[in-house]
Amino acid sequence: MKIKIYLIVVLLLFGLYTPLQAQETKKQRVIVLTDIEADPDDTQSLVRLLLYANTIDIKGLVATTSCWHKSMVNPESVTRVLKAYGKIKPNLLVHEKGFPEEKTLLNLVKSGLPKYGMTGVGEGMDSEGSDWIIKILEENDDRPLWISVWGGVNTLAQSLYKIKNTKSKNEAKKLISKLRVYTISDQDDSGIWIRNNFPDLFFIVSPGDDYGSATWNGINTVVKGIDNTEISNDWIAQNIQQDHGPLGSEYPDVSWGVEGDTPAFLSLIPNGLNEAEHPEWGSWGGRYEFYQPDFSKQKKGGSGVPFEAETRKIWTNAIDNHTPYIHNPYNRAVKKDTISFKDNKVSLWRWRNDFQNDFAARMDWCTKSFEDVNHPPIPVLSHSDRMTVRSGESFSLDAFNSTDPDGDSLSFLWFPYIEAGTYKGDFELGQPENSHGIHGQAPEVTKPETIHIILRVTDKGEPSLSRYKRIIITVVPK
């Protein structure tokens, strides 16, 4: 032990030792199932996804059906967007490394059966898409495999059907344990079949087809009382579609809601806030809790997808209580707004300006030099992101060593994310909340409780970009 400590000290002195919190995060593996051409939003979401192809390990892009697109699949539409990506990929590499080759992505384009829902599940219903999911699952890779479902989910249902009927129980259990599913509500009748027949499968969904009540709908909900500019058609035209190269030109106008499928992968983007394995912690993609929901009074959305009661626990809608911080023209640079919001969609739209600015900046990367665009700041804590304190004990947090690759000035904001932890009482940090350092005092507890504190570091570039640190404080009784 003494030798190990000595080596770490030596490495620190020479700048060679990287603490755990600074190590590179493993990329999340993902296979997308998309009913592309059912609605322009699939193409919109694909454009965004490709701009993060160096931070997310894309393993498949499968064209599928849905309740809106029952008898055809359109892999050629995926290919078209990938070819536009190939034209701007060299310029993306000027800004960050790791963007895959166009050819690599083209080889990942697959098709599900042009059949609707459970009519495409069963004996003889295999497709290149369903077999591809199994192939990737069987690879020697310990990372979870996320299935990001933008339409119907019957291609995955067929994969599960085949696994159950061709693998031993132990083999099937091992493969299924690696799956993580996020579906944009239910867009065929195979979603509920999967959840009923594979009760241990990790599944995030706002069940049914009442899209207006779903958490993911927060990405395009116009919220009264806040600035919704960054989901406006004018903003999209200026920052995404026009004068941003071939990929921006592929981004279609909104027909229904902008990017309704994007929440199915937003939580996979490494930004310091997102923890994909913990939907209950909240992320750019929203926050979800694990319970058996009762949506018996939920209204029907008109898709024709049958609505059935859930028979087991799933990851689904969770409520956030959010008071935004807003710009203060004098004295302290930020202040709390005079209005608060409380519902499940809040958990997603509360981050909307940040992820829209991030999208816009990456669109700039498609055509401009490093010096002419903005890049995200790098938050650095002066301490661990896990702390244990006793009831009533004071603690200090600091991010003085945070930096920005463009040399931009930085703004700091610290705030507790009460819903993400186990402690549900009143808790406030000290003032000011916008300094690089802040103090707090632990509440009184009778059993160990956790409190999540979020640090948001934002640069003053154009557009301004934010990254985060999540500090989890365990409070124990005296």
Short description:
The chain is α/β, with parallel strands linked by helices. It has 13 helices and 18 strands.
Helix-strand blueprint:
Layout: H1 2-13, E1 28-34, H2 41-51, E2 56-63, H3 75-92, H4 102-106, E3 109-111, H5 128-137, E4 145-149, H6 154-166, H7 169-177, E5 179-183, H8 190-197, E6 202-204, H9 233-241, H10 245-249, H11 263-266, E7 288-291, E8 314-317, E9 320-322, E10 325-327, E11 334-336, E12 341-343, H12 346-349, H13 352-365, E13 386-390, E14 394-398, E15 410-416, E16 437-441, E17 449-459, E18 466-476
Parallel strand pairs: 1-2, 1-4, 2-3, 4-5, 5-6, 13-18
Antiparallel strand pairs: 7-8, 9-12, 10-11, 14-16, 15-17, 17-18
Describe the 3D structure:
Helix 2 (41-51) packs parallel to helix 3 and helix 5 crosses helix 6 (154-166). The chain has helices at 2-13, 41-51, 75-92, 102-106, 128-137, 154-166, 169-177, 190-197, 233-241, 245-249, 263-266, 346-349, 352-365, and strands at residues 28-34, 56-63, 109-111, 145-149, 179-183, 202-204, 288-291, 314-317, 320-322, 325-327, 334-336, 341-343, 386-390, 394-398, 410-416, 437-441, 449-459, 466-476. It has 478 residues and is an alpha/beta fold. Mean pLDDT is 94; it is low at 1-23. The protein is built from 13 helices and 18 strands. It is globular, with a radius of gyration of 23 Å. It folds into two domains: 24-317, Inosine-uridine Nucleoside N-ribohydrolase, Chain A; 378-478, Immunoglobulins (Immunoglobulin-like, Sandwich). Helix 2 links the parallel strand 1 (28-34) and strand 2 (56-63). Strands 3-2-1-4-5-6 form a six-stranded parallel beta sheet, sandwiched between helices.
